[in-house]
Write a structure and sequence with these properties.
277 residues, globular, two-stranded antiparallel sheet, alpha/beta, binds zinc ion
C-alpha cells in the first residue's frame, strides 16, 4: 500500500514536470516549474538590496562618463530587445555600476536588472562594440528566462533525490542520483544556456548597430586574462576554442541584420555614485 502511494507521488511529480514545459526564444524546450514572473519578483528584491548595500558601502562607481556610456549602450540593446519581445517593455530595465577595478564581470538577472563591474571596462580595455557584446550576452540570459530555469532545475534535483529516496529507501542511491542529476542535467543545461545567451546577445548587438566581429575579440580578451576565476562571460564552457569558433559563426549569421541607423536608446535606469546623496 505504502509503495502504491509512493508510486502515485512520483507519477504526480512527473506529470507536474511535463505540464511545466516552455519554449525558449531560440526554440529549445525548457522546464519552468518556477515561473518567469516569480523569478523576476525574487530577482527584484535581491537587486534592490544589492543597490542599497553598494550605495551605503560606497561601492557605486563615481564615473559620469562611464555611466553615460553604459546607459547609451545598454539602452540601444534594450530598445531592440523590447521591439522583438514586447513583454519586456514592462521590465524595470536598470544597470548598476560597481566600483571594483579587480573584477572583469557583468550580469543581467531576471527582469532586466543588470550590473557592470568597473574592472570589466578597465581591465579588458573594452570598446563600445565589445561592451555591447558582453551586455547583449547578459541580457540574453534574462530574455531566455535562464534564472527561472536554473531555479526550476534545482527544484527538480531536490525532488528527484527525494523521489528516489522514497522509492528505494537507499541513501547511497539517493546520493548517486544527486550527483548524476548535477552532471547529467544541471551542467549541460548551463552550457546550453551560455550558447543561447551568445546567440541572443549577438542578434541584439548586431541589430542595435554594433560590430559583430567584437564577439570574438572580446572573447579573446577574456581568455587572455591571467589566472582569475572565470568571470560570468567565460563560465561553464566545455572548451575555449569551440566558443571562439561559435562566436565567429554567429557573427557571420547575423552580419546582414545591421540596421541603416541604430535605434534610439531605451530609457534604462543607471545606478551610479553621482555625488548628490
Ligand atoms: Zn553567460
Amino acid at each position: 500500500m505504502l509503495k502504491t502511494i509512493k508510486s502515485l507521488f512520483v507519477a504526480g511529480l512527473l506529470a507536474g514536470f511535463l505540464a511545466s514545459c516552455a519554449t525558449s526564444p531560440t526554440g529549445r524546450s525548457q522546464l519552468l516549474i518556477v515561473s518567469p514572473e516569480a523569478a523576476i519578483q525574487r530577482s527584484a528584491l535581491t537587486y534592490a538590496e544589492m543597490v542599497d548595500s553598494a550605495a551605503s558601502s560606497d561601492k557605486l562607481l563615481n564615473d559620469p562618463a562611464l555611466a553615460e556610456r553604459v546607459g547609451a549602450i545598454t539602452g540601444r540593446l534594450v530598445a531592440r530587445a523590447v521591439e522583438v519581445w514586447p513583454h519586456t517593455a514592462g521590465w524595470n530595465w536598470s544597470v548598476m555600476l560597481i566600483d571594483d577595478p579587480d573584477t572583469p564581470n557583468a550580469f543581467c538577472t531576471a527582469g532586466g536588472l543588470m550590473g557592470v563591474y568597473s574592472g570589466l571596462v578597465s581591465r579588458l580595455d573594452l570598446n563600445d562594440d565589445e561592451l555591447a557584446q558582453v551586455m547583449g550576452h547578459e541580457i540574453g540570459h534574462a530574455i531566455a528566462n535562464h534564472t527561472a530555469e536554473k531555479m526550476s532545475m534545482s527544484a527538480v534535483q531536490r525532488i528527484a533525490v527525494l523521489a528516489v529516496g522514497l522509492e528505494t529507501e537507499d541513501r547511497d542511491l539517493a546520493d548517486l542520483t544527486n550527483s548524476l542529476t548535477q552532471l547529467g542535467v544541471l551542467l549541460p543545461n548551463s552550457r546550453t544556456a551560455e550558447r543561447e545567451a551568445d546567440q541572443i546577445g549577438m542578434e541584439l548587438a548586431v541589430q542595435a548597430g554594433y560590430d559583430p566581429a567584437a564577439g570574438e575579440s572580446v572573447w579573446q580578451k577574456f581568455a587572455d586574462l591571467p589566472g582569475d576565476s572565470p568571470p560570468e562571460f567565460l563560465s561553464t564552457h566545455p572548451s575555449r576554442e569551440s566558443r571562439g569558433d561559435r562566436l565567429k559563426q554567429l557573427a557571420q549569421q547575423y552580419r546582414g541584420q545591421a540596421p541603416a541607423n541604430p535605434p534610439e536608446p531605451y530609457p534604462v535606469t543607471v545606478h551610479w555614485d553621482s555625488g548628490t546623496n
